Amino acid sequence: MDYKTSEPIVGPRSEDTLPASAAAAVKIVIVGGFGVGKTTMVGSVSEIRPLTTEETMTQAGVGVDDIAGVERKTETTVAMDFGRISLNEQLVLYLFGTPGQERFWFLWNGLFEGALGAVVLIDTRRLEVSFDVLGRLEERGVPFVVAINAFPGAPDHPVGRLRAALDLPDSVPIVDCDARDRASSRDTLLSLVRYLQHLTTATPETP
């Protein structure tokens, strides 16, 4: 499930210019295991032509990348995906999609610098590819929401069972998402923004 564009980007374009009314720009990271739809989500929701760093998968990844369940995948992100969306006249989100293969995770350090939060895309056919991703986010203390991507034929688990399988606290939102659909991806980003707002306004519990 990938978004691809073959059109070259030549010079600045008028649609890349920030709206004059924009008052705040926020960095958001889209993360997940290999082949869960990160490139697709950035491409579907971005209001500018997305920047992708997809390369054709070669023999170099054989025995290194776990492609179980996504054997038909032929291209993969090797650095990052980048896009932008204006949620309203004042708030702009800059979106950075991370590479999914573990051998490229060293790039995460730079991509997460300055990020306010993350969307974790999940494929319910391959929950195990998300365990390490969630662990790294928790170690970094990065707030995140979990988005269940709508893959054809994927099992539909109750939210409570998913939360237990992913070992998520009750406070972390779990939402449904179709990364191919702009409106669905935008709603997922709005869920993250609302969660971040909740965290900033929540009253700390008294010990």
Give the structure's gist in a few sentences:
The protein is of the alpha/beta class. The chain has 5 helices and 8 strands.
- End-to-end Cα distance: 46 Å
**Average pLDDT score:** 79
Counting DSSP E segments of at least 2 residues, the number of strands comes to 8
- Percent of residues in β-strands: 15-25%
Give the radius of gyration: 17 Å
Order of helices and strands: EHEEEEHEHEHEH
Shape: globular
Task: Walk me through the structure.
With 207 residues, the chain is of the alpha/beta class. It has 5 helices and 8 strands; from the N terminus they run βαββββαβαβαβα. The chain has a 6-stranded mixed sheet with strand order 4-5-1-6-7-8, sandwiched between helices. Strands 2-3 form a two-stranded antiparallel sheet. A hairpin with a 4-residue loop joins β4 and β5. The longest helix has 20 residues. The radius of gyration is 17 Å and the shape is globular. The N terminus is likely disordered.
Q: Topology of this structure?
A:
Elements: E1 24-32, H1 38-45, E2 54-56, E3 75-77, E4 81-86, E5 91-97, H2 108-112, E6 117-122, H3 131-140, E7 144-149, H4 159-165, E8 174-177, H5 182-201
Parallel strand pairs: 1-5, 1-6, 6-7, 7-8
Antiparallel strand pairs: 2-3, 4-5
What are the defining features of this structure?
alpha/beta, two-stranded antiparallel sheet, 207 residues, globular, disordered N terminus, six-stranded mixed sheet
